[in-house]
Amino acid sequence: MPVPADNPQTPEKIKLGDKLFHDKRFSSTGKISCATCHDKNKAFTDSPLRVSEGINKLKGTRNAPTVVNTAYATTLFWDGRSPSLEDQSMHPFTNPVEMGLKDHEPILKIVRSDAEYAAAFKQVFGKSGNEITRKEVLQAIAAFERTLISGDSPFDRWYYGGDKKALTPAQARGLDLFLARGAACPAM
Q: How distant, in Å, are the alpha carbons of 55, 67, 114, 132 from that of 25?
């Protein structure tokens, strides 16, 4: 799996990222976390919603894509605007419909003052207090997301493994149709 040189995986960092991913205090209402729209019980999506719901039940314009196998993605978000998990993970916090924060300062205030977070950031990054920045928060979340891997499906074998016989002819036609006209799909 591709891992950035400046963000190596460690069990401690992954555990910290998991905690950050599930922390509802990082939304303006205290009711939304990353895991709200990327629910592990729904393959890390918010299915069956046609469009995601953020703070105060505000509706977005699209549904949340899965974060499963995003470790292999070269672009993220439906429009491809983020080149990495580290970059992607910063945007929902300050989206006015998603988590609704004006900036990342409330998150930093929590991770710098919460004793459990302070100890974890010291252990993982060797930083404490104001040394903890948005960068470390995003790196931890990205490290956790890189562990959300599913593999060896027929699609995985076809797409990633190059096994042209992994999909049936009907599945291959369906994929071609989706790729050619996927923008017309109501779930997008």
A: 12, 21, 11, 17
Place of tokens 């017309």: 184
DSSP assignment, residue 128? -
CA atoms in the 13 A half-sphere facing the CB of 65: 14
What is the Cα–Cα distance from 186 to 62, expressed in whole angstroms? 10
Furthest-apart CA atoms within the chain: distance in Å: 57
**Which active-site residues does the annotation give?**
98
Distance (Å, rounded) from C-alpha 151 to C-alpha 21?
A: 22
Radius of gyration from C-alpha coordinates of the chain: 18
Q: What is the pTM of this model?
A: 0.82
The answer to whether 141 touches 148, Cβ cutoff 8 Å, is no
Model pLDDT for residues 129-144, shown as the tens digit of each residue: 999 999 999 999 999 9
Alpha-carbon distances, residue 102 vs 8, 89, 93, 96, 122 (angstroms)? 30, 15, 8, 8, 26
Find out whether 71 and 2 touch, Cβ atoms under 8 Å. Answer: yes
